[in-house]
Amino acid sequence: MSGARQQKPDLSDMRHDDWVARYLPAAWGPYARLCRLDRPVGTWLTLLPCLAALVQAAEGWPTLFRLFIFSLGALLMRGVGCTINDIFDRDIDSKVERTRFRPLTSGQLSLKNALWFLFGQFVVCGLLLFAVNEYSRWLAVLLVPIVIVYPLCKRFTYWPQIVLGIGFNWGMLMAWSDTQNIVPLAAIAMWVGAVLWQVGYDSIYAYVDVRDDLKLGVKSTAMRFGEHGKLWISGFYVATVLLWLYTGIALHLSWAYFLVLAVITAHLAWQMWVFSLSRPDRNFMLFRSNMTVGVLLIVASLGGTLIN
């Protein structure tokens, strides 16, 4: 890759000319960026599989109240995860091209204020527990240590994306526990499929940072896969599709689910066709394209439950 190509794309995950800068008071901006309100892709990737699980658990349309609670929960818990991540990684982020402008790293926000903000987010999340059943409350409590430990995983394992996938998609299990007070094997298979899907697409994202990570001694699946990334990620995507196929069969979903699942499979195959180890800017695009997979998963679930 030429030096000119390396310098072209701006891979920073912070923007200083976006809606946060234009519309929020200056004092609020660092907090909004700390919980990634300015980067909604992660929130959508948390929420969309959860909504698909809600549809499957409800065998059709979930209640508006449950949709609201789980949507708010996805937004808040993703913000909690990002805040914890930036607190632990504040020294590392200053040395990584993509993360050097984050609020704690750039000095826009003090550690003390970040901790208070984290506490406030946990309080609001705690209030949401009153809106779900007891089974789901215990599942929510189990999620907390997963969210806290994730940023530390990259220091001792090449597989932090697995922990991230478990936490990101935890709402799928809660969707079943709150709707039906059970989490059947088919729902667990759907969740495991989502975890493996996330390991795949987050590994694509990890290739953006791999050079910085090597210098810092930070681990990721991208470093584990190396030049064989396309083969590894393809394997995770194949496993995802097979698990989602099993879920459709086990839940007796209609032909519409399997039709849309075929479209999802084609999209994931397209990702692997386009994926390139030498094009980090393209990898960002592929990472974002997984929102399409999430939307298709909801469409598949609706079609599978509502169409005979």
Walkthrough of the structure:
By secondary structure, the protein is an all-alpha fold. Helices cover 74% and strands 0% of the residues. The protein has 18 helices and no strands. The chain has helices spanning 3-7, 19-23, 29-34, 41-58, 64-88, 90-93, 103-106, 111-128, 134-153, 160-168, 170-180, 185-206, 210-216, 221-225, 229-250, 255-274, 280-288, 290-306. Helix 9 (134-153) packs antiparallel against helix 11. It is globular and about 55 Å long. The chain starts with a helix and ends with a helix.
What would you say about this model in short?
The chain is mainly alpha-helical. The protein has helices spanning 3-7, 19-23, 29-34, 41-58, 64-88, 90-93, 103-106, 111-128, 134-153, 160-168, 170-180, 185-206, 210-216, 221-225, 229-250, 255-274, 280-288, 290-306.
